[in-house]
């Protein structure tokens, strides 16, 4: 009888020890929902500047508005073609005609032509005229006239005006041979970085990209950035291809940069698929992200405990949350978005809530799942002890 009492006390002691040790070392894939909620109220979390925000329709609308990509049609506008406005460094071909009898350039009694190239000249030929640093060109019997900032037609009319009284009914044709002033610079992940000249046709974004040989990376991973003066605008290349309104005309001195953007988010915890998952430059919603990770793990996920960990831009947060703590060196604030997937309305919100690059999507374990693991840890310790006690009692 004494031996049985000893075994009973031993079993009880092992049970208590196992319970205590199970609480201390119970395995988990991350913090529980309660631990995250308590962290929001802890002084240390406030000092660290971590905000916990419950995701609802109003919050989702604010995030979507704050992260809206301004289209090229708004930021750059649909400008008219630049035409053939002459600039400094451009090279011009000038042809001057006289009606018979030619008084200045040709033989009397015939029609004569004065050309810069001399290809069909029957009189004096002019060299090609390059617009100098002052924006001027030199024409015989006319002198120096302003060319930069004017169209070829305006230059021709000005030459005619100076020849009145010197030539017989002069007619002047001015042609742009080489464009050195109206160019767009294309750099980045393109086949060939280049300076692409603009013409009166009015080259658009995709025209210039095609001239540069296209992109070297998949279209879905590319972003077009256009720098015009001090302003910078960016859109996914796929958006520009799909929406003709974003294929805007470019202006002289624009810089078009093609950027390879391998966006990704990380899924952790009680989800169907853990890991880092890439997504397209056009963006990803929370609903799409849940689909790509095969949803939640039904056996252990807490549907009320889904979280998105993000370094958020201050302008995307309510004013009272911007002052929570120290921002990161790039000015962002650490935020935890809490998502209750038990609420059917959340599934509508998830269709618009945007996932951002480097987000961490974490789903905590359900309390019952942790309790089941705890029981497993207890029984894995108790059963061998109970078996040993049964063997001893039979002796």
Description:
- By secondary structure, the protein is an alpha+beta fold.
- It has 11 helices and 19 strands.
- The strands form 5 sheets. The chain has a 6-stranded mixed beta sheet with strand order 1-17-16-19-13-14. A 5-stranded mixed beta sheet has the order 9-8-12-10-11.
- 27% of the residues are buried.
Rough shape? rod-shaped
Radius of gyration: 38 Å
β-strand number = 19
The biggest beta sheet reads: 6 strands, mixed
The share of residues in helices is: 25-40%
Report the mean per-residue pLDDT as an integer. 79
CATH architecture label name of the largest domain? Roll
Distance between the termini: 13 Å
Strand order of the largest sheet: 1-17-16-19-13-14
Task: Summarize the helix and strand pattern as letters.
Answer: HHHEHHEEEEEHEEEHEEHEEEEHEEHEEH
**Which CATH C-level class of the largest domain is it?**
Alpha Beta
- Report the CATH superfamily of the largest domain: Outer membrane lipoprotein wza domain like
Structural class: alpha+beta
């Amino acid at each position: 009888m004494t031996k049985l009492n000893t075994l009973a006390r031993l079993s009880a002691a092992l049970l208590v020890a196992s319970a205590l040790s199970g609480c201390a070392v119970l395995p988990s894939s991350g913090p529980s929902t309660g631990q995250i909620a308590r962290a929001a109220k802890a002084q240390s979390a406030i000092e660290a500047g971590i905000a916990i925000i419950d995701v609802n329709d109003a919050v989702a609308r604010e995030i979507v508005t704050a992260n809206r990509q301004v289209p090229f049609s708004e930021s750059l506008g649909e400008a008219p073609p630049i035409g053939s406005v002459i600039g400094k460094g451009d090279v011009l071909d000038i042809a001057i005609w006289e009606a018979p009898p030619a008084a200045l350039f040709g033989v009397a009694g015939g029609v004569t032509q004065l050309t810069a190239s001399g290809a069909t000249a029957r009189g004096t030929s002019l060299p090609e005229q390059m617009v100098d640093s002052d924006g001027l060109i030199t024409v015989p019997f006319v002198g120096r006239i302003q060319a930069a900032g004017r169209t070829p037609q305006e230059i021709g009319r000005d030459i005619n005006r100076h020849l009145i009284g010197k030539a017989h009914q002069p007619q002047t044709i001015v042609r742009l041979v080489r464009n050195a002033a109206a160019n767009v610079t294309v750099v980045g992940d393109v086949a060939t970085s280049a300076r692409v000249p603009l013409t009166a046709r009015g080259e658009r974004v995709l025209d210039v990209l095609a001239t540069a040989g296209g992109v070297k990376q998949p279209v879905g991973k590319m972003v077009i950035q256009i720098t015009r003066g001090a302003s910078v605008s960016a859109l996914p290349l796929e958006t520009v291809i799909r929406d003709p309104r974003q294929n805007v005309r470019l202006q002289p001195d624009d810089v078009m940069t093609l950027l390879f953007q391998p966006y990704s988010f990380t899924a952790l915890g009680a989800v169907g698929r853990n890991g880092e998952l890439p997504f397209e430059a056009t963006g990803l919603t929370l609903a799409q992200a849940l689909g790509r990770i095969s949803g939640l793990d039904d056996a252990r996920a807490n549907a009320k405990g889904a979280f998105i960990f993000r370094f958020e831009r201050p302008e995307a947060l309510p004013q009272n949350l911007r002052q929570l703590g120290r921002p990161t060196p790039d000015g962002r604030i650490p935020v935890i978005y809490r998502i209750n997937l038990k609420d059917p309305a959340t599934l509508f919100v998830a269709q618009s809530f945007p996932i951002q690059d480097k987000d961490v999507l974490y789903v905590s374990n359900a309390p019952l799942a942790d309790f089941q693991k705890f029981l497993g840890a207890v029984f894995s310790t108790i059963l061998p002890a109970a078996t040993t006690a049964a063997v001893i009692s039979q002796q």
